[in-house]
From TrEMBL:
N-acetylmuramoyl-L-alanine amidase domain span: 1-110
Protein name, per record: N-acetylmuramoyl-L-alanine amidase
Pfam family, one: Amidase_2
Organism this protein belongs to: Enterococcus faecium
InterPro entries associated with the record: Amidase/PGRP_sf, Amidase_domain
Transmembrane segments: none
Disordered: region residues: 131-168
Molecular function, one GO term: N-acetylmuramoyl-L-alanine amidase activity
Any one Gene Ontology BP term: peptidoglycan catabolic process
Amino acid sequence: MKNNYNGSNSYTTDVIGDGGIVYRVGEQGYVSWGAGNANPYAPVQIELQRTYDKALFEKNYRAYIEYTRDSAKKYGIPLTLDQGTSLFTKGIISHLWVTNYVWGNHTDPYGYLSQMGVSKEKLAYDLAHGFTDENPTTSENKPVIDPTRAGAANPTLTDGTNYAHIDQ
């Protein structure tokens, strides 16, 4: 974890990793700028540790979802994901949303999550509903479609302004 965090280049409030541990690295309730000027209204920015260990990922992901839900509720943020096209649309946003509608080139967390069997739809559902016996942490033991990569299931890519169609 210590190799992945650089506090001089961002203001992230929390990092989740090492088996579901929440590290408070900044003060919540102020401006978070881990996504640059896209976050002038964000009281929280949470980063998720990248791991290739499925068991570690499961613990981290569960904590990530639960902590994100708790933080959103604390600040009156709707439990919706990547809605709208304006910074004034309330809800939880990803770096990919920031890239598509504000600036930047980050596409996380979708590529990483897809490698671990979590689709964008599953992430949105988990953020909205949390976990129950009927909704386990992950549902797939294999990678799912990464919405940031072109392929048969995702033939159209966009950066928010430009569109590309991939013919198979």
